[in-house]
What we know:
Strand content: under 5%
Distance between the termini: 91 Å
Number of helices: 7
Largest sheet: none
Amino acid sequence: MDKKYIGLGCLGAVILVVLVVFFWVKGAYNGMVVARENGKEAFSQIDIVLKRNFQDLNSLDNLLGREEELIRGTLKDVTEARARATSITIDPSNCTPEQMKAWNQAQGDFTQALGRLMVADENYPELRDLKAFQDVRDKLSGAVNRLAEARRKYNEQAKVYNVKVQTFPNNILAGMFGFQPMFYYEAPAGTEEQTTDFSRK
């Protein structure tokens, strides 16, 4: 009789351990999936911001007169840099360091070119009096700030995900199920990664 109860007790303990392990694995796995998807969603917002300003760039191109060749050249640089930045498609949870470096560089090139465009009207005082130009300029200034914010939020989500997949004991499951750390957005040297107010007083 005692052996029967001992056997049932052992069986109950085994079942309890199995259930505990199952629910831990389930919770840890699902937590990593949610964190990864949040990171990917935050990453996609960067691309959305880049694509939203396409119409604004076209509007600015239409506003400029032929005499503003310097600004036209800068606008061309911005358009080309934006095209490069939006042409690079990567999955931040499954990419190589080289792919992320190329993406970071394209992002930095766009930010630098847009910054040059935003201060170009210093050489053309008459543009500051053109309301339509200032309206477009303000929109692009907002785009710079939204882009910086989207990058910051992506880095935050990537950090949350990376902590989950690299800390013990989640790192064991991460290795078993192929969860790789996400790379961070790193502004290339020479670019300013901060919210910027280009508006004129």
